[in-house]
Each structure stands twice: as C-alpha cells, then as structure tokens.
Amino acid sequence: MLxxxxxxxxxxxxxLVLPGLLTTAEVATANEEFxxxxxxxxxxxxxxxIRKQFNWTNLGPDSPFLGSLLEDSRFHGQAKQLMKSEVVxxxxxxxxxxxxxxxxxxxxxxLDRRGVKFAFYLQPLEADTGALRFIPGSxxxxxxxxxxxxxxxxESNKGVEDDAGLDVDEIPAFVAESSPGDVIAFDNxxxxxxxxxxxxxxxxxxxxxxxxxxxxxxxxxxQEASLIEAFPLVKRPPEWIANPDKSPIRQIWIDFLRxxxxxxx
Length: 265
Prior knowledge:
By secondary structure, the protein is α+β, with helices and mostly antiparallel strands. The protein is 34% helix and 21% strand. The chain has a single domain, classed as Sandwich (Jelly Rolls).
C-alpha cells in the first residue's frame, strides 16, 4: 500500500511514479497479450490522430492478465487510497502509439470529475523517446484553467500550424522516465503529454473514478459513449459483463455502470 508521503506527493503534483510494481514475468505476459490485441486492432480499426493511435479494451478473453489488473489490489487498493473514497473500475485498456508525440491534454476538462489512471509502458522510455510528462499541480484550479486559457500550444494535429504556440517539449514539465514494470498513477485532470516517441510505444492503462454525484456520473457515461464511437474496440465485452467467476467487486461495478447507462449494458 502507499505511504503518506506518496499520497501527499500525488495530492500536490497530480501524479506518482511507482517503480517495479509489476514483476518481470508479469511484463512478459503483458507483452504477449498486448501483441494479440494489437493485431486485432490493426485488422479491425484505423490509426487515429497525431498520435497514430490504436486503442482497445483488455477486459476480454484474449488478455486475461491485463484485464485482471482492474481488480488487482495493487491497483484497486491504491486507487482507493489516492481518491480517499470508494471507486468504480472504469477500464483496462491497451494503447499503441506510432506518432512522435502526444499533445498536451488532460483526460477531462471538468475539475469536478475525479479519477485516477494507472499507466505502464512495455518499453523503457526517456524524455526524448516518448516518456510521459506532466505539468505538476495542473490538476487543480487555477493552474488547470490558466493553461487552457493562456498557454498557446501548437495545434498541428488539427491541421493548424500556429508558429506562435509552444511545442510539447517547450512547456515546463516533469518527465516520468520509466522502465518495464514501473507504473505511473495520475489524476485524470492533470495536463500530460509525450515527446519524441518511437513507433509502437506500448502502453496499458487501468482507470477508476469516484462516484461523487449523479449528474457527473451521467456525464461520464455520455463521454464514454463518444469515446467508443471513435474507438469501438474499447467497449466492454459481454464476457466481462457476464462475470463468470462471480467476482463480488466486479459485480458491484457492473450494477453501478448499468444503473447509470454506461455503454454495453
């Protein structure tokens, strides 16, 4: 479990690096399952955006280890510590990036939508080879909003080349260099990006949110529907929803997601 200094670090800066959370054997298994899912994604979908990205769920039968991480106490337990509340398991996804950068963005622009993502890469990444970078403290107002309103970021990914804007590597940031087995936890509101990435960067992610209020939860459901429209392979598979092993915690999440109209139910 996390220590109090680790939790304070996360609260203050919006992210936390967890070295060696996964074993060498687990990383090898993750790579095998990732390869199977990536092949399926290449056959059934197209790359998206400046990231040249493939994205899919790992909750299906082809990736049992990666899917199990959503209920793994190392992730679920630490999510509850970081959120200081019960959480809802949202996704266990795979992402393959073939572009040389990920633009600066938060995973949500709504400061009332509390969530935590655990991300890990299956290759070693450094500052100029695609490591995640964060603007510390940007998960909170006023910095979160100041960045959106006052920092001009180049938007070449949208077909608009803004020479007056700042490129990814020109924004002051902390670079979370990592090796296979390291996991990075971050607040879904913190601004993050990557720079200089090599083709086929393999990232797995596990995500949770806090069930704070009904209006916010229903907004999440709508947002997820839009994501699935763009990335159809991220939809939860029926095998996961069936919960054949009768996992108590999964059933709580399934009932919750069904109640609020999330996709797939």
